[in-house]
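Reviewers of the previous submission asked for a worked example of the structure-prediction workflow described in the proposal, so we include one complete record here. The input consisted solely of the amino acid sequence. No template or homolog information was supplied to the procedure at any stage.
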Amino acid sequence: MIVYLIKIILCSAFFYSVYKLLFENEKMHQFNRFYLLGGIILSFFIPLIVLDSSTVKIPSSNIKNLVYEPIASTAGLIPAIKESNGYSINYLMVLLAVYLLITLMILIRFVWNLYNIYRRKSSNPTVLYGSSKIITLKEKISPHSFLNFIFLSNDDYHAGVIEEEILYHELTHVKQKHSYDILFIEMLIALFWFNPILYLYRKSIKLNHEYLADEAVINIYHQPIKYQYLLIEKSSGLSPKMSSNFNYSITKKRLIMMTKTKSLTKVCLKQIATIPMLAISIFLFSKAAIAQVPTLNSTNKEVPTTQEGVSKELLKEYQQIVTNHIIQNSVKKKPFIQYIDFSPEDMNRLQSIYLKMSKAQQREQTVIFVRSGSPLPKVIPTNKEMEAWKDDKTYGVWINEKRINNSDLKKYKPSDFSQMVISKLSKNAINYGKHYYQIDLMTNEYYDAYIKKTKEQKDEYFVVFSSKKKGVDF
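From that input alone, the workflow returned the following structure tokens.
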């Protein structure tokens, strides 16, 4: 979770940096509005994307590691509870309490600001104005808007000193529904207040709203110089939080933006630049998942077949033995085969029949036999790989064919292992959803024993599962 939150901050910073570098000072305000909102949203989703990358190729002699999942042992899943007579602080709970307290305070302030706006709207006179409503207030305020309401000073409104350009500016905020952008970013800040980039987004979103409203006024009244003087005159005054208003601190930027000319070619090129930037962000901030690709092993020997094959009776017997070992997957409500239930007698009988089948008959079976070949070569994981495997949402880890807690990897260093197999789970796999990749590691001692056993079992057969039969999971 912490890694995910850090990636959100970094990804949002990346998109905001691109905005400041390429888009902020261009007259492409409608595009910028959606870019800023889209950048925030994408920052939450891109770190969830899983990218596959191929690494060490797996010899086909190890294919059984790809077509079945080891039965997970409960050993290592539940960490031992150490007794302690002393008082210990649960720092995670302390951090959670601090987060909730600050979040609650911000939410209370957020709701209070909304209530103040609602109270002003309900307790003051209302005048219809186009598709919005004007709320006239007793206090001296600068014009501002929120949702469908434009707030004005009662004295100024009835004295007729509020210019049409100013009213149309606020009406544009209403028509373009800028308040919803503000509500969105304010809610995100309430929940993710620890992300400093969100505050920068809020500032830029509000400024871009002003650019949009200014652009609409100039397009209607065609008097930019007069409008600029009005902005300077109206740039002081008070207005509540979350409203669109005239503010002196951003007036200078607005005046400069009005003097800029728009180059259609330049704008189009910059907008197109968002495509490679999006690809870069996915590459930088998505999850890097490591997968291995099976390849043919030239040292494998083919399984014997016969040209005539076996009789229908023997095929029926073979399939009946397999059927007897199909059990119900209580999670996905589909059958799956658990090969460890085969008794030695059944294994010998299956092998005897399978070796007499024709190639076509063998290809139709869900339980097949593979002739052992050369042992797996020595492969040592990297520090980067071992660090990535600690993510239990993406990886399930087995050491010496026993499931472990991903966090237990910190007890090991890469040189402790001599072999690794990384396989991607199919959507039908039992553990799919709990994790998406299975890591099978061999310690040095276990690998040495495996090499010895493989040499002793040279030219023997072992059973694996084929995924040809539909509706059956492994």
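The first strand starts at residue 50 and ends at 54. We consider this example representative of the routine output the project will generate in years two and three.
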